[in-house]
Amino acid sequence: MAPIGPTPKKEKPKPLQQQPIIPEPVAEPIQTTAIVVIHPGSTNLRMGRASDTIPITIPHIIARRHKSIGQTVQEDYTILRYETNHSECDQQMESGLRKVQQAIWTRQMSSGHRRLPTPPEQVSAYNSTVIPQRLDDNSGLKWTDTQHLPDTVVGEEALYISPEDCYNFHRPFRCGGLNLHQGIGGSLSVVMQDLEVIWKTAIERHLEIPIKDLRHYRAILLIPDIYHRPHVKELMNLLLNRLGFGAAIVIQESVCATFGAGLQSACVVDVGDQKTSISCVEDGLSHRNTRIRLSYGGSDISRCFAWLLSRVYFPYKECDLASRMDALLMQELKESFCHLDQDIYGAQLHEFHIRQPHKPTVLYQIKLGDEGLQAPMAIFYPQTCGLVGKILIHTQQRNQGDPEDPHDETYLLQTQSRETNKPKSGANTDTTSQTQEGNGGAADEKAKAPEKVTEERETEEPEPQISSSMSKRMASTDFNDRLPGLDEAILHSISCCSSDETKKKMYATILVVGGGLLFQGAQETLHYRVVCGIPQHFRHQVESVEVLCKSKDLDPRLTCWKGGAVLSCLDTSQELWIRQREWRQFGLKVLRERSPFVW
């Protein structure tokens, strides 16, 4: 018999892409010993458990054996760059050097007097007569043993592979992003394969975690402030699918820097080896309009220092920056002899050693005048580095969309535009935006994503039709393809903040991290130049300017990694974990909803 009563109505199932992604409940508190914090860089990879005091640091390089005999060696250099391979390089460097000399003479010493320049001829006369001294017959260094012909060698061992061995050398990161190029090993698939091999080796060898056990571990990955969404997607696939971590979080480096320094808000200046990135961070969020990345860093100072040394008869005449050993030597000389202290002047006598595998140790003496100060000043006058090109300044680009995430910010912007054109429907726009955007601890900021997406424009695309209220200034295009100096870029980034109150916060705390500005006197020099560059109409509103180059006595190269470890311990971060099963089921949609930044 049929049941008596009305037939219950069946509800239509909602489409999968519109269903909210509900986080899985956490069964028990997460142990910091089971969390791996990964901070990849152009030169070094820093990795460690969140419970560790400091991470392990290994060279971020991989050597791959040639598949055929006689193949040409391919190597990603550290100091040499293709942007300097042009006819006008020397002319630009000379012009930049004149500006550096003028800036050094203009600024007074602590005594109130002008700094007396040291004539290059004075130090050249001494350096041209230096005779090297042989200290022993063998330096004690050895080339990496490759007799068993391993297919890949990573880290420190890769650096010490003999040039005569048949290997190509690749660095997966370059200038603050993945090292994609048209040459051998430059495709996205090969770069991701290189990262997988390097990270697997570091996890097994240095953290002593078997790869098969990674399903019981979680990973926090630090990504650049200016991120490329398809690359972030590939990195998540690497962590959760290829390496097999149980869960993962991706977070921007500048936000981690504030966590590591214990600051609520700051203008974060990350001077790395090959890039300098600036971002204004407030309450754990990086302001999108203030992000800017410049393609120069510590290695460019090293190259400038090598050029200055060649002008005063550098006694080690065999120095070749294309050689890995000589590139390491120049980095060491820069860290030992360069400074930003105006009170150090006159000819200074120094010593350095040449140590190379299977060769004797040789002692050299050298006199330096202003070269030790002129080279670091190149970071304020990047013309001295000889860099030329239109891709040396980067800002956050517009989201191009992904088929895995049809309801992204582009969809929201188009929906909002249609609703705005309808009469009496503008009041529902903000509610719609807030409903579609995910949580991730940034609901208020993500509600503004339709406005902000209009600011992320690809240079080759036409200007979208938007209202004037949506158009805001970005830290981007006022330089006309001219590389700005570090102080100029900081001032420009802060000027792109949305309110005067935020600008005052950023001026109050400028946090310098990374290893590219570790020079005596760097803090005082940067403070002086920033204070002098504050716009006249805004100076009366700025109460104080503080530059922090070594917050909490922590090595600035480790500040970002430390911040990632701190983040893993916070209760608020427990909602950000993306589990392996969720990633395989929802893909990019879960990343947009869980990311602790505006995706």
Give a written overview of the molecule.
This protein is of the alpha+beta class. The protein has three domains: 32-77 and 144-254 and 575-594, Nucleotidyltransferase, domain 5, CATH 3.30.420; 82-141 and 298-385, Actin, Chain A, domain 4, CATH 3.90.640; 261-297 and 396-461 and 478-554, Nucleotidyltransferase, domain 5, CATH 3.30.420.40. It contains 19 helices and 21 strands. The protein has helices at 89-106, 120-127, 156-159, 188-205, 229-242, 253-261, 298-311, 324-337, 371-374, 409-421, 429-436, 443-446, 449-453, 486-495, 500-508, 522-533, 559-569, 580-586, 588-594; strands spanning 35-40, 44-49, 56-59, 62-65, 133-134, 152-154, 167-170, 173-174, 177-178, 218-223, 247-252, 265-271, 276-282, 285-286, 292-294, 348-354, 362-368, 393-394, 510-513, 547-548, 578-579. Strands 12, 13, 14, 15, 18, 19 and 20 form a seven-stranded mixed β-sheet that branches. A six-stranded mixed β-sheet has the order 3-2-1-10-11-21, with helices on both faces. Helix 7 (298-311) packs across helix 8 (324-337) and helix 10 packs antiparallel against helix 11. The longest helix has 18 residues, at 89-106. The protein is globular, with a radius of gyration of 27 Å. The protein starts with 34 loop residues before the first strand and ends in a 5-residue tail after the last helix. The model is unreliable at 1-18 and 425-472 (pLDDT under 50).
